Amino acid sequence: MSADWRITGRTWVVGDSVDTDAMYPGYAMKMDVPEAARHVFYALRPGWVDQVEPGDVLVAGRNFGIGSSRPVAALLRHLGVAALVAEEFNSLFLRNAINNGLPALTVPGVRDLVGEGEDLTVDLAEGWAEAGGRRVDVAPQPPMVLDILAAGGLLHRLVADGYLPAEAAR
Amino acid sequence: MPMTMIEKILARASGRDEVRAGDTVVAEVDMNVLIDLQFARWVTPLAIADPERTAIVLDHAVPAPTVRDADGGPRARAFARDFGISRFFDVGRHGICHQVIAENALARPGQVLTCTDSHTCAAGAYNAAARGMGPAEVLAILCTGRTWYTVGPTIRYDLVGDLPVGVGGKDVFLHIAGTWGDATNHNLEFGGDGLASVPMNERRTVATQAAEVSADFATFPVDDACRRFLTEHGAAPEDYVAADPDPDATYAAVRTVDLSALEPHVARPGAVSDNAVPISQIETRRLDQCFIGSCANGQLDDLRIAAEILEGRTVADGVRLIVTPASQRVYRDALHLGYLGVLADAGAVVTNSTCGACFGYHMGVLGEGEVCLTASTRNFRGRMGSPDAEIYMASTATVAASAVAGHPVDPRHLLAGQEQIA
Ligand code: SF4
């Protein structure tokens, strides 16, 4: 079971307090997801959207995702980001990631563990992160959160539970 | 076990005797508020939990600046009609969601409120456990009537002394953010003898801004002023049960703010945490735009304060002063009280009520290299337009006075009737 929650990917590392508007600028809210996704980190790391590849892991510092309720995770998933790992998450941003089916794990000290471009493995259910032969144990995601992720996000869950028509999960 | 304000509310809403920091609980949501942006990508549910615990507010992008936004309107109208949602605030009786929540007492003491906007913590001014949720989660709450919370540790702020003239809730908040920085995943709880000197509008400014230090909830106790406010807006004392903290509740920190010693504050561009200083320490910058508006500072009292400062004065050459009332009701009240005329005569542009410039979407977007002083909620890079614009943040009084001066100034000089400003 736990292997399902183990994710390995090449990392991109950003700093502290990277806010929602840096990932999903206000003007991009006028666009559909595929077009809006072209503007992630438009000012912070211009060109990043052309470098990131499916399966990559985004690593951040403290207070990751402070800001808006806009669903940044939908854009990151569109770009193929496999997981978010941060020293600390803003709680709204973390909920948005989970609810959009994007795995996320809090790993204090992760930026000491891994440098940009190196591989990082995390296990959401067992609660650990590993890179370069070093491993740190952290709090696992609770079963309730894993359930939402397993469904593929909240909309899929609501479809499965009969609240939304099937088209909502597309 | 003694509990903080937020622990008490979440215990009641989750049917438990007690909750403590670190617990994850599933709570019934007393009011769930959908905003217009929710309808940009909309799938109509097959069933919803309760139309009486649902409200819809069109606010961020009204009247619609894009076809995409315009297309959301009919979806919202059809949904409200088909599901019998009477609390539907369509264009014309609209306003920024947090203002509409306050005007209609949608948030009540001791209750749980959710909304598709990150500044939902605003309703903590009325002793509600209110926080923002993403659009998917608001949809889920619409369907099921409940959601989960992981209870964070609470930081207590004891307010002492009286708030001086010319110093507002924004200054209280900027002092807190500048002094103690982020409170990520923590709750803020306010109280103390000084609270009586803080009017309800200023409390809401403080509660709103809590999102900017990354807090989950920000709550105030129910006192006479709060009860009066709620009664005036449709919630009588018998309609709610206030959540008071227990005397021995556990706090992550207890901090004291001496209101009487506060001076107006300004946050520098980028963030508020560890980045706000008393105005006497702020650098002189030539301002291109001044903005008074948003859920935090577009209230009727903000427009009154701006009008008092701008009466008989003129916005400086080269400065755009944009004033956006927080709701249609604020707009109409300010119109009838004469504030809008004073503002327009001084050279301000008064817009319709909407989120507008606050999130860089429409009506006051900043260009490259411009410098803005805003009374709105957020000063992230690029928040109000170009990433190469700079956004300083201050109170309504400071923004109004600075619009006259053309650079950041202490508004107390103008309030004291001193014509000469440095
Ligand atoms: S005014 Fe600004 S901060 Fe307030 S709800 Fe609107 S966009 Fe958000």
TrEMBL record, chain A:
InterPro entries: Aconitase/3IPM_dehydase_swvl, AconitaseA/IPMdHydase_ssu_swvl, LeuD, LeuD_type2/HacB/DmdB. Pfam families: Aconitase_C. It comes from the Bacteria. Residues 53-106 form the Aconitase A/isopropylmalate dehydratase small subunit swivel domain. The keyword Repeat does not apply. Keywords: Lyase. NCBIfam families: LEUD_arch (TIGR02087). Belongs to the LeuD family. LeuD type 2 subfamily. This is 3-isopropylmalate dehydratase small subunit. The lineage of its organism: Bacteria, Bacillati, Actinomycetota, Actinomycetes, Pseudonocardiales.
